[in-house]
Amino acid sequence: MKVKVSMKIFSVPVKRVLGVLALIGASALTLTNSAHAQLRIEISGVGSIQIPVAIAAFADEGLAPQQITAIIKDDLTRSGYFKVIDAGTVISETTPVNFDAWKARGADALVVGSVQKLADGRFDVRYKLLDTVKSSTLSGQSLATAPTAARLTAHKIADDIYEKLLGVRGVFSTRIAYVTKSGSQYKLEVADADGEGVQDALRSNEPIISPAWSPDGTKVAYVSFEAKKPVVYVQNLITRARAVIANYKGSNSAPAWSPDGNKLAVSLSRDGLTQIYTVKEDGSGLQRLTNSSGIDTEPQFSADGQYIYFLSDRSGGPQIYRMNTGGGDVKRMTFNGGYNISPRISPDGKTLAYISRPDGRSFQLYVMDLATGQNQRLSDTTKDESPSFSPNGKYIMYATESGRRGTLAVVSVDGRVKQKLTVQAGDVREPTWGPFMK
Amino acid sequence: MRSSSISTTLALLVSSALLLAACSSPVKLEEKPTIEDKSATTMPPPADTRQVSPVDTGSMDPLNDPKGILAKRSVYFDFDSYIVKDEFKPVVEAHAKYLVANKGRKILIQGNTDERGGREYNLALGQKRAEAVRKSLALLGVPESQMEAVSLGKEKPKATGSDEASWAENRRSDIVYQ
To answer: What is the pTM of this model?
Structure first.
């Protein structure tokens, strides 16, 4: 009996099967290593325009410990701005391409590539982004990748595709931090923006709130109640070194980093009323910024370092204000309804996100265009909290409740792209989107 | 005759001494040197071996009497209110009296809110509830050094429901003895 060497299994080429088996092998390893509750992401809304992009399998991508093109496809799909077409075949960056054929299949762009082993144990991941309409190459990269960095390389390629086709930097290689609560255990966790690679930064039997990334992405400030009162800490994620930067008499909270990373604004009740102060990164150099007769809290620096947005109930109810970083020139920003809190300013300074309670009951995410003063409600849920802009300013991640459990959600600033992020057990809250990193 | 004068003097002295001895408490015959006041290093007076000094067990401390007013450590607040209501004044007064009488005791006053609203704003509102109790105690004479007002915001609710009863239970300041 003659047996054909090149068999087709379930009408899928053998190379594909081997690739998938390699992926399963790699995933099993990842699963046993990580006992962490993974963050699951579901898409429930897409952008008004979706660019059709065909993604080919990369030549020899089974060599890498992660299937690079699967990650790229997931990233682009999740962004809400692409309609991902599976090319259904392997195309390397050196294979000649029939642009018209791909255009006829409805693809505006085509992604091709290859993976090769390097002598030093790393992989060379090469990729090209082709414009089928203009029959040209939009981008090409060669990324030397350590085996543990395969996911990051895939995210970097997805970022490049996003940027070349949309004109805005992608956020697939960024990280997020958030707090989980399961029974009486609280954890501050850090994950990739796609919910993978979850790591515990802090574990405690007392609450953790208000995490804030340092501008360089290596440290997180947060409020911990381990001392039976709120105290602000700064923790180096790499060295695990922790420093108390504010533990004055009373409550200490709401840390926010200045754009240069040298100081933090915090909210302290040391002088009787809750007011806003700044401290240097090592906790020294305390300076008081506000001096009102009410509550001043939730400070947020603008990215250009000019302003601090904050919450104040000096007018009788909580509203959002802005002051210069010296504490002067205070200007009220919100006038709609009696309860507006949690100001967050977009990286380009043009959009203010906040939580509003316009009907006296529901807490919902809103954005205000600072040029026109126009407000837009971005969510349909009623217990929204803690908004956080992605570093490219296109998305807002926030905490909300779904079926009586704490979940996270992502919405694009125009309200159209929607995602829900959940953990397997317990509640997730207090999200903060990390910065661009090298 | 000299010797008889001396003898007489001696006799007189001795009889005087004996007379003195009969009339007064024992007199030390050697001179006592002047001692500087070094109270820190002076030896304690020899113990009176028949002395008895009372010890109160912890169960006697009024703070630990489960039926006493000091067992009440919580002050409850109305919705959107940060004032100590009249019904809680007796509790506050009792703790004030105890703290004034026991200068070595310190308290942490933890303010709480119900679950509705943002975490940081609720932390500040909880602080107002802690402050309200602290101010009341201060007005009754409790020194600053014996109190610290802090907030737990909505982070550590006692009641976990989302109904009026649970919310009312959580709008609360607790006096915690350190």
So the answer is: 0.85
